[in-house]
Design goal:
With 279 residues, this protein is an alpha/beta fold. The protein has nine helices and twelve strands. The strands form three sheets. The chain has a six-stranded mixed β-sheet with strand order 5-6-7-3-8-9, sandwiched between helices. Strand 6, helix 6 and strand 7 form a beta-alpha-beta unit. Helix 3 crosses helix 4. It is globular. It binds adenosine-5'-triphosphate. The site of adenosine-5'-triphosphate has 10 residues, from helix 1.
């Protein structure tokens, strides 16, 4: 999938401003960025649900602006807001959506995958917010999509459900599904994404894999410990050497020893801060 110089304005206000993006088949690609950065607009254009004002886009070999029915059936979408509501039960809902696709997965298999076995005959309106979100995910993957868009998929999930969802996404990716994930949960993107892009004011300002984004791998580490007169810390390029020296000085266990590298969240927040300064 590829976008070049993508542009979209709403009533003269620029939402996407010359954005370039390359997403490879089979990868999990994360899109990060502050509220209003243009992520959803970009994703909606890639999905063929929003017209662009400029630029070129190719998704699964076609222009999503003029995509065929066949193309649409190769794509799965989990919208930002809960899409599925209504009086049908979970199983009826999933079966209903399965009919739209030429080669759907087994509804029972998908209900099991999203952890809703016990709720299969419950009406969707009677589910909790997190459970309804799981129905959205079930509906998004029922058509066996080659490409799956997930826009903030785990909002409202409890921690155990989120871990379970990550496993589902990983298993889909292992099966060859390309996944485009938009999320404000940095640890989710870190856990799942092979590569990611940070979007600020309609442009990609950084791109890479979560471990090295923004120079993260080469960043200095902070070593913390407790000295006899109180807590200490030092910033260093050579944390192993510092720890060896501390171990010698303490002749064994170093009290409260901790080594911290910048998290993806640290790197992300400093990228956003730099962008704001240059705005
Ligand atoms: N339908 C619309 N009509 C007018 N303006 C819109 C519309 N949709 C989005 N915008 C504006 O375009 C900009 C980008 O919005 P978009 O929803 O793409 O951002 P986002 O990065 O997905 O944000 P969030 O993280 O809050 O979901 C915002 O300034 C928003 O107000």
């Amino acid at each position: 999938m590829r976008a070049r110089h993508l542009r979209k304005t709403y009533g003269g206000r620029v939402a996407v401003d010359g954005l370039d993006l390359d997403i490879r088949r089979g990868e999990i690609f994360g899109i990060l960025g502050p509220n209003g950065a243009g992520k959803s607009t970009t994703v909606e254009i890639l999905e063929g649900h929003r017209r662009r004002d400029g630029g070129e886009v190719e998704v699964l070999g076609e222009d999503p602006g003029h995509a065929s029915r066949r193309w649409k059936s190769r794509i799965g979408i989990v919208w930002q807001n809960e899409a599925v509501t209504g009086e049908l039960s979970v199983a009826e809902t999933v079966r209903h959506y399965a009919r739209y696709f030429p080669n759907p997965r087994e509804p029972e298999e998908i209900i099991h995958l999203v952890g809703l076995d016990e709720k299969a005959s419950t009406r969707v309106t009677a589910l909790s917010g997190g459970q309804r979100r799981r129905v959205d995910v079930a509906v998004g993957v029922i058509g066996r999509p080659e490409l799956l868009f997930l826009d903030e998929p785990t909002t409202g999930f409890d921690p155990a459900a989120r871990r379970q969802f990550w496993e589902l996404i990983r298993s889909l990716a292992r099966g060859g599904t390309t996944i485009v994930l938009t999320s404000h949960y940095l640890e989710e993107v870190e856990a799942l994404a092979d590569r990611l892009a940070v979007v600020v004011r309609g442009k990609v300002v950084a791109e890479g894999d979560p471990a090295t984004l923004g120079g993260r791998a080469g960043a200095r580490a902070t070593v913390r410990w407790r000295a006899p007169d109180g807590p200490r810390e030092c910033y260093t390029d050579t944390p192993t050497r510092v720890i060896r020296e501390l171990a010698t000085a303490f002749d064994g266990e170093v009290p409260d020893l901790a080594v911290k590298r910048p998290t993806l969240e640290d790197v992300y927040l400093s990228l956003i801060e730099q962008q704001e300064k240059t705005a």
